[in-house]
């Protein structure tokens, strides 16, 4: 008999939370809730309405499986196949980068410079969270692209599920966009230097292609900045998310390539996270 079978939901939740805390999970509170919702296939609001009944054998078995996978280090988002971004649920799977809360800064910053009906390109789209969020927040014509076929497939799935009109193209950076110009390009490219220590939770489970970018982590930025002006209308904006301590280097790349009105943006932890710059109007 599974250890969770017959337990009331709150009792199962508390037991799982304690197990995750004992294992050093800093997000034990939220992870345990997400796993219980996944195991019982309903939101917490409905689960609490059913507090009088115990977990069924199937629900208990699913919860035990989820707990074992999480305790083994697998991200909860890959277990539940769901990650929340900008207030919306996005489908994720192994092979596709998990959306981060820090990346919401990229969406918020980009919106400040967009006009109605703007054409937007989301490069290195991953799950599609940035481009889809922009498409749903405003009346923008969004195209998303990624070198990964899995990422493009997941983006298409998320766009359909969330009702976003997003065109998806598969290919390496600007290769699928020959001869096309956009009012804005947004990108969250790989930016971790090769060989830099990374948490096991990340490096053991998430796609290396979406994480690492050369010895200094700037390889993708050099390519994007070098080619972006050919794909922006005059006065168009380029917004880039970057890693810790990379803001000066990314800002310098933009200035060297003739971009103007360079701006930096902080994430919710007050760390520099996004750089925006404009192509000259003439």
Helix content: 25-40%
Q: Which ranges are low-confidence, i.e. pLDDT below 50, for 5 or more consecutive residues?
A: 197-203
Radius of gyration equals 21 Å
Counting structural domains, the number is: 2
Describe the protein in words.
- This protein is of the alpha/beta class and 282 residues long.
- It has two domains: 9-80, Helicase, Ruva Protein, domain 3 (Orthogonal Bundle), CATH 1.10.8.10; 100-278, Rossmann fold (3-Layer(aba) Sandwich).
- It has eleven helices and nine strands.
- The strands form two sheets. The protein has a seven-stranded mixed β-sheet with strand order 5-4-3-6-7-9-8, sandwiched between helices. Strands 1-2 form a two-stranded antiparallel sheet.
- The radius of gyration is 21 Å and the shape is elongated.
- Mean pLDDT is 89; it is low at 197-203.
List the helices and strands and how they pair.
Layout: H1 9-22, H2 28-40, H3 44-49, H4 57-71, H5 76-80, E1 83-85, E2 88-90, H6 104-111, E3 119-123, H7 129-137, E4 141-146, H8 149-162, E5 166-170, E6 182-187, H9 200-203, H10 219-228, E7 232-241, H11 247-256, E8 260-266, E9 272-278
Parallel strand pairs: 3-4, 3-6, 4-5, 6-7
Antiparallel strand pairs: 1-2, 7-9, 8-9
């Amino acid at each position: 008999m599974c250890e969770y079978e017959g337990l009331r939901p709150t009792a199962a939740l508390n037991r799982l939370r304690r197990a995750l805390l004992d294992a050093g999970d800093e997000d034990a509170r939220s992870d345990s809730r997400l796993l219980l919702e996944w195991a019982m296939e309903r939101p917490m609001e409905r689960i609490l309405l059913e507090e009088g009944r115990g977990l069924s054998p199937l629900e208990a078995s699913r919860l035990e499986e989820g707990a074992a996978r999480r305790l083994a280090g697998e991200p909860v988002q890959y277990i539940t196949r769901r990650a929340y971004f900008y207030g919306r649920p996005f489908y994720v799977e192994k092979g596709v980068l998990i959306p981060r809360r820090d990346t919401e800064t990229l969406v918020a910053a980009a919106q400040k410079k967009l006009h109605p009906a703007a054409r937007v390109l989301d490069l290195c789209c991953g799950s599609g969270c940035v481009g889809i969020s922009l498409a749903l927040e405003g009346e923008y014509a969004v195209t998303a692209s990624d070198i990964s076929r899995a990422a493009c497939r997941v983006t298409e799935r998320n766009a359909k599920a969330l009702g976003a009109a997003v065109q998806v193209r598969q290919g390496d950076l600007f290769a699928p966009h020959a001869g096309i110009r956009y009012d804005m390009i947004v990108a969250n490219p790989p930016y971790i230097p090769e060989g830099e220590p990374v948490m096991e939770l990340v490096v053991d489970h998430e796609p290396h292609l979406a994480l690492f970018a050369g010895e200094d982590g700037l390889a993708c930025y050099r390519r994007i900045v070098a080619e972006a002006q050919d794909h922006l209308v005059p006065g168009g904006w380029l917004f880039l998310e970057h890693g810790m301590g990379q803001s000066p280097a990314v800002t310098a790349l933009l200035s060297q390539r003739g971009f103007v009105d360079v701006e930096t943006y902080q994430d919710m932890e007050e760390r520099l996270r996004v750089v925006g710059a404009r192509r000259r109007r003439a």
